[in-house]
Amino acid sequence: xxxxxxxxxxxxxxxxxxxxxxxxxxAIRDNGMCINCKNKKGIGQPNAHFIARQFGGLGIEENIxxxxxxxxxxxxxxxxxxxxxxxxxxxxxxxxxxxYWNKEMLVLRSYKIKKCKLCNKEFGTKSSKEKICKxxxxxxxxxxxxxxxxxx
Length: 152
Description:
Blueprint: H1 2-10, H2 20-29, E1 48-49, E2 64-65, H3 69-77, H4 80-97, E3 112-115, E4 122-125, H5 134-148
Antiparallel strand pairs: 1-2, 3-4
C-alpha cells in the first residue's frame, strides 16, 4: 500500500511539473550546485525551467536547471540584454550536456504563444480565444471587485 502511494506522488499531475526522478537526475548532472554562481545548496533542489511553465515548458531533464534562489529570481525577472545573456549562457550549458537539445522539444505542443492585448507581453495558452494574460485578467477582476464593493 505504501509503495502505491509513493508511485502516485511521483506521477506528475501536469506536464510542466517537475517529477522527483527528474529533480534527482538534474541534481546529479549539475553536481548539486547552482550552475550560475556555483553556490552549493544541496541535492534534489533543481527547480528552474529554461522555457518557463507559463509558455508550456515541460518538466523534463533537458528543460530543468539547478539554480539557487537568487539566480532563479534573476533569470525569471530579468529583461532585455540581461535576459538574452542568461538565456544564451544556459542554452550553451544545456547543449553541452545534451547534443540533441533544441528549444522546440521543450514546449508542450498544445501551447500557443500570444501577445497580451493590454500589456503587450508574451504569454502561453492552450485556448485560441484567450487575448489577455492571466496577470491582466486578475487585475481586471480586482478592479471590478473594487468598483462593486461599497465602503460605508
